[in-house]
Amino acid sequence: MLPEELLQFIQQGDQDAFRQFYEFFKARVYNTCMLYLQHEQEAEELTQDVFVEVFHSAASFKGNAAAGTWVYRIAVNKCLDRLRYQKRQKRFAFIASLFHKDTGALIHDAPDFFHPGVAMEQRENAAILMAAIGQLPESQQTVFILKQLEGLTVREVAQIVGNSEKGVESLLQRAKSGLRILLEQHYHQTKDKD
Amino acid sequence: MDPQETNRKMEEVLNAMDGAGRVAPGEHVWDHILQRIRTPRVVALPRRVVWVAAASLIVLVSCNIMLLHKAIPAQHSDTMDELVHEYDLNNTAMNLGI
């Protein structure tokens, strides 16, 4: 059964259809969450949030886009919300650190993240890349993750982010040049340390 | 590190995620989802709505208090005016011998 058809059954509360839908999209959603949050446990929590939202708002799926696009949109929005929340927490922790020396440790400073799906010999490079992606602006980050890492087409990405295909291509170019600058800085810093 | 070496390294990093396999979440994730969809949903108001409502309430109460304070001296002066007016009338009447 197609995911769009499954959604019609999910609207009526059919848990078997929901399980099939989950099996179909679980890896994509989990992977997207992991690429954004760079934390396995948080990615699992957010995957739960995404599918609970899918179950409760299946009725709002109008069928204008593919079910995959709809699920990705929910996942991307939830990831961005969580990242914004983390940034706020970080800012608050910084302000608190000005007053309380003992409790002012900055939270959510992601350590080097090793994506479990990356081959062992590429893990170090992937960790550098992930750290650089985390520094990109939200829109560029989203486009880079969906197009380059998730392997979606420009058209699909455009539908998910609600932008034109040209807009997505331009964001992708900016993301790539932004990453080059960040990586260059990274290598200059490591060179200085050596 | 010379620029060529830096470029080569950068390309390697940019392509580091190529061919990375998708990983599936653990089975417990599905269990948690199932548990969450079976429990009745508590619809909570967004925090922003709560803040706006609280702020509106404070503004409303403040306005009422201000209006009340304005209204009381006005009433007071009205009464005084009436008293003075009555006194004048009485006084005039007395002078006229009424």
Mean pLDDT figure of chain B: 79
Please report the total strand number of chain A as a whole number. Answer: 0
State the order of secondary-structure elements of chain A, H for helix, E for strand. Answer: HHHHHHHH
> Biggest interface pair, residues each?
A-B, 38 and 25 residues
Largest sheet of chain B: none
Report how far apart the termini of chain A are. Answer: 57 Å
Structural account:
- The complex is a heterodimer of chains A (194) and B (98).
- With 194 residues, chain A is an all-alpha fold.
- Chain A contains 8 helices and no strands.
- Chain A has helices spanning 3-11, 15-37, 40-56, 67-99, 123-133, 138-149, 154-161, 165-193.
- Chain B has 98 residues and is mainly α.
- Helices cover 76% and strands 0% of the residues of chain B.
- Chain B is elongated, with a radius of gyration of 40 Å.
- The relative contact order of chain B is 0.04.
- At the A-B interface, helix 2, helix 3, helix 5 and helix 8 of A face helix 1 and helix 2 of B.
Describe this protein with a few key phrases.
heterodimer, A: 194 residues, mainly alpha, 8 helices, globular, B: 98 residues, elongated
Short description, anyone?
The complex is a heterodimer of chains A (about 190) and B (about 100). Chain A has about 190 residues and is mostly helical.
Q: Topology, pairings included?
A:
The complex is a heterodimer of chains A (194) and B (98).
Chain A: H1 3-11, H2 15-37, H3 40-56, H4 67-99, H5 123-133, H6 138-149, H7 154-161, H8 165-193
Helix pairs in contact in A: 1-2, 2-3, 2-4, 3-4, 4-7, 5-8, 6-8, 7-8
Chain B: H1 3-14, H2 27-38, H3 47-96
